[in-house]
Design goal:
Blueprint: H1 19-31, H2 35-38, H3 42-64, H4 69-107, E1 112-116, E2 124-128, E3 137-141, E4 150-160, H5 162-165, E5 171-174, E6 181-182, E7 187-190, E8 192-197, H6 205-214, H7 222-243, H8 245-251, H9 258-268, H10 271-290, E9 293-295, H11 298-305, E10 309-313, E11 324-330, H12 336-347, H13 353-366, E12 379-381, E13 389-394, E14 397-403, H14 404-415, H15 424-435, E15 439-445, E16 448-456, H16 463-472, E17 476-480, H17 485-495, E18 499-501, H18 506-518, E19 523-527, H19 533-538, E20 541-545, H20 550-555, E21 558-560, H21 567-605, H22 623-647, H23 656-688
Parallel strand pairs: 10-17, 10-19, 17-18, 19-20, 20-21
Antiparallel strand pairs: 1-2, 1-3, 3-8, 4-5, 4-6, 4-7, 4-8, 9-21, 11-16, 12-13, 13-14, 14-15, 15-16
Helix pairs in contact: 1-4, 3-4, 3-9, 4-6, 4-10, 4-22, 7-9, 9-21, 9-22, 10-21, 10-22, 11-21, 12-13, 21-22, 21-23, 22-23
């Protein structure tokens, strides 16, 4: 799954050292010192308040000529650096998003539109695209840019959507069906279409993308809010704890300077996760954008990480989408080569993948090559939804290939025997194909059944292993298909999916989602049609295909620009990576506080309680060097963890217990060891250069 997650993205990940991002981020970090902005992050707001308080006290002490101001000045400087580094983490994450938004904004151009009087009118007048309103009908011809979001109401055209999807291959947009939605800023390459505008200026899909990517509409998710409340509660507890210390020291006959109490307080509270929490959320949405998926909210990304049930369409997700001819099964008395030849002739005019595969199979298995039919004055019978068969008439012969019941009815009609029995071997072949998960096509010539073609759904390579990984993660997979129960069961068994829903209708999808949610499960699904809109809206994670209808894109809380339904599995992985990153850095933040306690608490109290010297396990040189080293480490660790917060922790599929054990080992134990090493190294550095 990791390998799949590394497929082509919208662009390379921007480095934290990218000058184009870092310089604006530094300016943004300074701008975020505004208390009205800082108050949204309770932990860092408190750090800013105590930094301001100690700065005021330092100015007062400087005015009265107090001693030992060098130590106090260094503590104050590093307190401000702690706040700035926290702001920098968020500003860098936002800067990467703004770079993505700038790329999208460059695709948005002001164009003119050919406004029609109504959908039946042929006369148009040119107007600026900004004057278009929902309901207006415009004509878009080859070479024109589509002026705004809308739906094709007439015509079919090839459209270049590279500005939105990053994919250079054109796509077909046509009236009716699930491929009628068009996006403003894309270009018609051939033919012409009439488009009914569905979005007002400023609220087009591209406008919404830019706004979301820039973070202007990014709201804190429920998990972020809950964690912020927890961190704020811990901060209040430590405020009360530190406030009681002067009383204890006074009882012991001494006193502790305010600057030392502030240093203790800042090292006690969870500043590391408080500084990185917002950046983690922004970076999670950014990873999806670079993966060509737009999440409408951070909550959708989180929900993807907590998904319990995955609903996957069979076609295009589990199978390759095109059924291919796998075998010719002749009835007794008919030579299999004769069946293959007749099937190939009947498929010569069939341009579907299934029809072409019949021609290829006959050529590969029996070396039957396509024949020149012009000299025989052949007449091809095109496939239609009404007849459900195709064929050829030539040289006095009639050959037909198609759905079993349609071919049987044609044979009975041609033979003038409406109740003619079907050979038992023919029925057995059909039943065997259906039970194996295939689709049978019957072939007949001149009113006589010849046999059956076995069309087989081709399971995507590696899909069974991916489902096994999802199962190990506790995620249940359900295949959605319109096939009959026998075919669905066979494909489900071959692909390794946990369950299936056969003869699926929009109502059945919606009912299944509600049943899962009633059991406390979170459900993810993807879709592209108007009939998928209710289920997409009901699902906790609804991924709409960009090629789908406007209704589907409005109903989902994510849009996949590549219209690749298999991405649903990777979206779940990205959501889990976001949750794991937040959990891992929270664990690291709390664990590294333990080491800071061993540095700063003995330094504060050893003068009053000499026996506390035994806690100085790091052998720090002096109380002042211990306190300053802890404060410096507290600030620098934020900068060191910014790349991890933006990139996310490494994700490998596994059970919740396995992932928890791994994170506790790496980030829990590591969170204890790293500060011991870092604070000791800083102590040696600070004392060697004479700062303390």
């Amino acid at each position: 799954m990791q390998a799949d997650a590394e497929r082509t993205t919208r662009g390379p990940s921007s480095s934290i050292l990218d000058v184009g991002i870092l310089i604006p981020a530094l300016r943004g970090a300074l701008a975020k010192l505004d208390p009205r902005v800082m108050v949204k992050n309770p932990v860092m707001f408190v750090v800013e308040v105590v930094a301001l308080l100690t700065t005021v006290l330092f100015v007062r002490d400087l005015a009265v000529g107090a001693s030992n101001l060098g130590f106090s000045a260094q503590i104050i400087v590093w307190l401000w650096f702690t706040v700035l580094f926290a702001n920098l983490a968020e500003a860098v994450a936002e800067g990467r998003d703004k770079a993505q938004a700038a790329s999208l904004r460059r695709t948005r151009t002001q164009t003119s539109a050919k406004l029609l009087g109504d959908s039946s009118s042929a006369q148009w007048r040119e107007v600026p695209s900004v004057q278009l309103r929902p309901g207006d009908v415009v004509l878009v011809e080859a070479g024109d840019l589509i002026p705004s979001d809308g739906e094709v109401i007439e015509g079919v055209a090839s459209v270049n959507e590279a500005a939105i999807t990053g994919e250079s291959a054109p796509v077909i947009r046509e009236s009716g069906g699930d491929r009628s939605a068009v996006t403003g800023g894309t270009q018609v390459l051939s033919d012409q279409i009439k488009v009914r505008i569905t979005a007002s200026q400023g609220s087009t899909f591209l406008d919404r993308m830019i706004s979301l990517v820039e973070g202007a509409q990014r709201q804190k998710t429920p998990n972020e809010i809950a964690l912020n409340i927890l961190l704020a509660g811990m901060t209040i507890i430590f405020v009360l704890a530190v406030a009681t210390i002067p009383a204890f020291t006074a009882y012991a006959g001494g006193s502790i300077p305010v600057i030392v109490l502030v240093a203790l307080f800042v090292t006690l509270i969870p500043t590391t996760i408080g500084a990185l929490l917002s950046a983690i959320g922004i970076a999670g949405m950014d990873r999806l954008v670079r993966f060509n998926v737009l999440a409408m909210s951070g909550r959708a990304v989180e929900a993807a990480g907590d998904v319990d049930t995955l609903l996957l369409d069979k076609t295009g997700t589990i199978t390759l989408g095109n059924r291919l001819a796998a075998a010719f099964i002749a009835i007794p008395g008919i030579d299999e080569r004769d069946l293959a030849g007749a099937a190939q002739l009947a498929s010569l005019s069939d341009e579907t993948p299934e029809g072409r595969s019949v021609v290829v199979l006959a050529k590969e298995r029996y070396a039957i090559r396509s024949r020149e039919m012009e000299s025989l004055h052949a007449r091809f019978v095109e496939f239609t939804a009404q007849t459900r068969m195709s064929g050829i008439d030539f040289d006095g012969h009639e050959i037909r290939k198609g759905a079993v019941d349609a071919i049987v009815a044609w044979v009975r009609e041609r033979s003038h025997h409406p109740n003619m029995p079907v050979p038992r071997e023919f029925e057995r072949a059909i039943d065997s194909i259906a039970r194996s998960g295939g689709t049978p096509l019957a072939v007949a010539r001149d009113g006589q059944l010849l046999g059956v073609i076995h069309l087989k759904d081709v399971i995507k390579g590696g899909i069974k292993e991916r489902f096994a990984e999802l199962r190990a993660m506790g995620i249940r997979t359900v295949m959605i298909t319109g096939d009959n129960a026998l075919t669905a069961a066979a494909i489900a068994a071959e692909s390794g999916v946990d369950d299936f829903l056969a003869h699926a209708t929009p109502e059945m999808k919606l009912r299944l989602i509600r049943e899962e949610q009633a059991r406390g499960k979170l459900v993810a699904m993807c879709g592209d049609g108007t009939n998928d809109a209710p289920a997409l809206a009901q699902a906790d994670v609804g991924v709409a295909m960009n090629t789908g209808t406007t209704a589907a894109r409005e109903a989902g809380n994510m849009v996949d620009f590549d219209s690749d339904p298999t991405k649903l599995i990777e979206i779940v992985a990205i959501g889990k990576q976001l949750l794991m990153t937040r959990g891992a850095l929270t664990t690291f933040s709390i664990a590294n506080d333990v080491a800071k306690y061993f540095a700063i608490i003995p330094a504060m109290f050893v003068a009053f309680y000499p026996k506390l010297a035994v806690l100085n396990v790091m052998g720090l040189r002096s109380p002042q060097s211990a306190i300053l080293s802890a404060i410096v480490f507290n600030a620098l660790i934020i900068v060191a963890l910014i790349p991890l917060a933006l990139r996310g922790v490494s994700y490998r599929p596994g059970s919740a217990a396995t992932l928890l054990s791994r994170n506790l080992l790496v980030y829990g134990v590591g969170g204890i060891i790293v500060p011991f090493i870092g604070i000791k190294a800083l102590d040696l550095l600070l004392t060697s250069i004479g700062l303390v």
